Amino acid sequence: MGKKFEMATVKPAQMDKEHMLALKGIYMAPYMQLATALIGKARFAGGNMFRHQIDTMGILIDYGYIDGILLKAACVHDVVEDLPDFNQDLIRNADEDGEEVLKLVLEVTKRKGQLKQEYLRHIIAEGSQKAKILKCADRISNMISLGFVTSGEFIERYCDETECFIFPIALEVDYNMYQELINLVCSRRTYLEASGYFDKKESD
User: How many Å apart are CA 18 and CA 38, to the nearest integer?
Assistant: First the structure.
C-alpha cells in the first residue's frame, strides 16, 4: 500500500506576500507553451483541454499549493495521455525541474489499454502525495465541468467513480478538497433527480 501523508486541512484565507513571492519564482512559460498543443482537443463539456490544464493549476493555487513541480505538472498533466505522438523529452528538457515534472505527469497518466478503475486503484495504493493532490484538483475541475453536461448516464457514472475512487484519495491528502468534491457530487445528483433521470431509469 502507498504511504500515508498528513492531511492538509488549512486553506490560506488569502495569498500573502511570502506565497506571492514563491509563485513569482516559478517559471511556468515553457510548460504553458507545451500545454497549448491541447487547444485543439475538445472537451465533452465544452471548451478544450488546454483550458482544463490551466484550470487544474488554478485550483491548486486556490488551495494554497505553491510547489513548483506540482504546478508545472498540473499545467501539462494530460499531454502524454491525450497526444499520442507527444515527445516526453519536451517536458524532460523544459527546465531544471523537467525530469521531476515528467515523473509526476506519468504518475497521473492512464496507460494505453489500462482500465480506468485499475488506473485509479493504482493511484490510491501507490501514488505519491503530489500525484494524489494533483488528481484531486483534476477531478474538481472535471466535476465543475459536469455542470455543462446533459447526459444523465455520463453524470451518474462520473459521480459514482468520484465517490468510489477519488473520495478516498482526497480524504487522505486534503480534507478541504474532499468537502468540495462531496458538494459537487451532491449538486450533480440533485440535478439528476430534478431532471427526472432516476425516475426514467427506474421505469425503463
Answer: 32
